[in-house]
Specification:
Layout: E1 3-6, H1 8-11, E2 30-33, H2 36-50, H3 63-78, E3 82-86, H4 89-97, E4 103-106, H5 108-116, E5 122-123, H6 140-148
Parallel strand pairs: 2-3, 2-4
Antiparallel strand pairs: 1-4, 1-5
Helix pairs in contact: 2-6, 3-6, 4-5
């Protein structure tokens, strides 16, 4: 399960919310895993934390919530928020270690790999944001959302 991590020397401040992943402050310096199940969880947590949406049930979204989520995601993606969508462990490590990104979803061993290269990288749990680690259920609405996430 990817978790959010950051390079504290490059963010200039503590990362305290999933909303930071989509903050214009980090435009072009963020990355996200290119895997719909995990990415959809990250998107929903970030959008809700930023105040764009309040989901009745993140694991069983309504059609209206799916449509609004996808519209917002596409706008954020088109704005250049993300430097990359990574598909492999090594890509996530290289993006952070090189300084190309300063905030992204990562697996815990990837954070350790970045640190072994002498690059500061920390887990930034977001206690104030509920739902970390939530994956959508296997219902039809979540399946539609997953299929359309990374358009």
């Amino acid at each position: 399960m990817p978790i959010r991590s950051a390079s504290p020397d490059l963010t200039g401040r503590p990362i305290s919310s999933w909303a930071d992943l989509i903050s214009p402050e980090f435009k072009g310096k963020a990355a996200l895993q290119d895997q719909p199940t995990s990415a959809s969880s990250m998107w929903r947590m970030a959008l809700e934390a930023r105040g764009d949406l309040k989901y009745s049930n993140k694991g069983n979204m309504t059609k209206k919530e799916i449509d609004k989520t996808i519209d917002l995601m596409m706008d954020i993606k088109k704005s250049g928020q993300f430097r990359s969508f990574w598909t492999t462990f090594d890509q996530s490590v290289n993006l952070m270690a090189s300084g190309e990104v300063v905030i992204q979803s990562m697996w815990s061993p990837a954070v350790t790999a970045v640190k072994t290269r002498g690059v500061p990288c920390v887990f930034q749990p977001c206690a104030k944001d509920i739902g970390a680690g939530l994956h959508p259920g296997a219902d039809e609405a979540s399946g539609r959302a997953q299929a359309r996430l990374l358009l």
